[in-house]
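for the recovery benchmark. C-alpha cells below, seq after
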C-alpha cells in the first residue's frame, strides 16, 4: 500500500489505541478492506517486529503492508 492510500485509509478511521509498536483504528464508517473488498472491523498496524497479538475473539484476518509495517484487517465472526 502506498503512502497516499495509507493516509487516506487512516484518515477515514477512528484511532483506538497505540502501545508497544501496535496502533489500532476502528472502522466506524464501513470502509472496504483492500484485500477482500468487504467492510472490516479494525485495522491493526504493527510497526515493531516481532509483535505478539492476543486475540480474544474468533475472527478472520486480511493482511497487507505499508513500508516496513504489517497491516491487519480484522473481520469479526
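predicted aa per position
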Amino acid at each position: 500500500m502506498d503512502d497516499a492510500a495509507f493516509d487516506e485509509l487512516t484518515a477515514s478511521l477512528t484511532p483506538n489505541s497505540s502501545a508497544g509498536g501496535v496502533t489500532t483504528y476502528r472502522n466506524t464508517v464501513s470502509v472496504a478492506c483492500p484485500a477482500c473488498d468487504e467492510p472490516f472491523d479494525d485495522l491493526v498496524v504493527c510497526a515493531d517486529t516481532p509483535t505478539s497479538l492476543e486475540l480474544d475473539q474468533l475472527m478472520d484476518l486480511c493482511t497487507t503492508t505499508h513500508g516496513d509495517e504489517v497491516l491487519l484487517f480484522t473481520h469479526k465472526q
